Amino acid sequence: MKALTLNLTLCSDSLARNKSAVKQAKYLAIADALRQAIKEGQVTPTEVLPSARKLAQQLSVNRHTIMAALAELVAQGWVEAKERSAYRVVKNLPIQASRQVNKVRQTQQSFDWKFRFKQDLPVTAKVKASQYSYNFSGGQPDIRQFPFLEFKSHFSQVCQRPKIDDLSYGDSRGETELIEEIATYLRRVRSITDKELMICNGSQEALYMISQLLLQPGDKVAVEQLGYPPAWAAFERSGASLIAIKQDDRGLDPEHLAQVFAQGKVKLLYLTPLHQYPTTVSLDITRRMQIYQLAVQYGVAIVEDDYDHEFHYDSQPIAPMASDDPAGLVIYISTFSKLMFGGARIGYVVANDELIEQLAAYKVLMNHKSNVLVQQSVAKWMQQGGFEGHLRRMTRLYQKRRDFMVLLLQDYQSQGLPIHFEIPAGGMAIWLDTGKSVVGLKEKLMSNGVYIQTEVEFNMIKRLPNTEYRFIRLGFAAMNELEVEQGLNIVMKALYGVLSD
Ligand SMILES: Cc1ncc(COP(=O)(O)O)c(C=O)c1O
């Protein structure tokens, strides 16, 4: 019983330190300490506990407090009352905490889960941008620029006057005021009308739900050969297979698409028309129309992923395909991940009412609804003009950063490095042809504090042997000029060896 006494002494010390806890639940803390002693094996099953009087003396507490603690342990199934007010530890301890379970834990490796499928955790889910001194991750906004104080005032406002009804379940489509704000914004800035809108937990949730609702094993999904793997993963998870469509410097190749559609079974076409991901090429107007006509002809729905629409610098961005969709086959998805940050998890999907209704029903299965307080705060931020102000500031800043990175790269070109790139009209990254293989470059740079993405991560045909990967995607939005200059220097040194300053 020596160890048991010691444990309870510790407990009485902590009780003495925390006076308010003493008042409130002294007996619970004592019950806790006793339970711990039993779990650790200091008193074993069927062993009799010291008498209530003794325990009360040891802990300098009233005997009634000890009796209340013991009653608590009886109720929880750890001890049982014996004759003449003695208590002993039960023969079979409550299962979760017992030493027997611990013994099982020690001998068994792990439970044999029968997974229906297994999926690797993508690198992006593990990588913390802050681990890297230079983060060239292609779609990363500069989170340091986000107006947290301003946003906090909206959040406080929302918490000060909570809308009790909204804080419960229901409304899986999202908060009405946010839906209205976004719908008005889309009508004004992206010319999208006549469709329904629903808020999602980021556009990834929309992609996943669309896949689950519309695809089945045997279906095909046409995707850009260079593209966005999280979307591919969602499509493949439904049992559909992907078909890579060729692309060039004008975007997706409609001729190749027509051949693929003609072979049948294509259910969806996933496109990033404004700033092709990852190459940043804008799909030209003629091709957009050809692609739309093909989709109508073959009855294929188009998922238009317009993930960074606002960041377009040289002209007004081309209106989305969803803005001119007489056949109603475009499912438009977009996100606040670039306008705010990825962790905000606010995305939305715009489509015809029948599809939105099904998506809303599916979302109930997954998670009921997206976070209400964040939605309401974003709605206030939009209503009061902060959102568009931030957008204007960021567009100017990112344009400057794009121009700066272009200058640096042109400078490297003039030093004779074999790099090639098109100046992107918008987006947050430059797609750079390094003129040499980039296999292994990412890992090398990561150990030097630099995060970049290389072509192999985006290429659908990566399963083909001997493909030559020469491109890297250099995000220019997340870092200031000094950081970009220093980081780029490390990238170029890793690629081409020592450079002249
Ligand atoms: C092509 C593309 N689509 C969508 C997203 C945004 O996804 P989410 O809204 O789930 O954060 C990203 C973000 O990196 C992206 O690059």
Ends: how far apart?
Answer: 74 Å
Determine and state the CATH class of the largest domain.
Alpha Beta
User: CATH topology of the largest domain, anyone?
Assistant: Aspartate Aminotransferase, domain 2
Spans with pLDDT under 50 lasting ≥5 residues? none
How many structural domains does the protein architecture include?
Answer: 3
Kindly report the name of the CATH homologous superfamily of the largest domain: Type I PLP-dependent aspartate aminotransferase-like (Major domain)
- The percent range for helix content is 40-55%
Strand order of the largest sheet: 4-12-11-10-9-5-6
Which architecture of the largest domain per CATH? 3-Layer(aba) Sandwich
What would you call the shape? elongated
Rounded mean pLDDT is 90
Strand content: 5-15%
Give a count of the beta strands, DSSP E runs of length 2 or more.
16
List bound small molecules.
pyridoxal-5'-phosphate
Supply the number of helical segments: 17
Q: Please tell me how large the radius of gyration is.
A: 30 Å
What does this structure look like?
- The protein folds into three domains: 2-107, Orthogonal Bundle (Arc Repressor Mutant, subunit A), CATH 1.10.10.10; 129-137 and 389-496, Aspartate Aminotransferase, domain 1 (Alpha-Beta Complex), CATH 3.90.1150; 150-384, Type I PLP-dependent aspartate aminotransferase-like (Major domain) (Aspartate Aminotransferase, domain 2, 3-Layer(aba) Sandwich).
- It has 501 residues and is α/β, with parallel strands linked by helices.
- It has 17 helices and 16 strands.
- The chain starts with a helix and ends in a 5-residue tail after the last helix.
- Residues 139, 202-204, 228, 272, 277, 305, 307, 335, 337, 342, 347 line the site of pyridoxal-5'-phosphate (PLP).
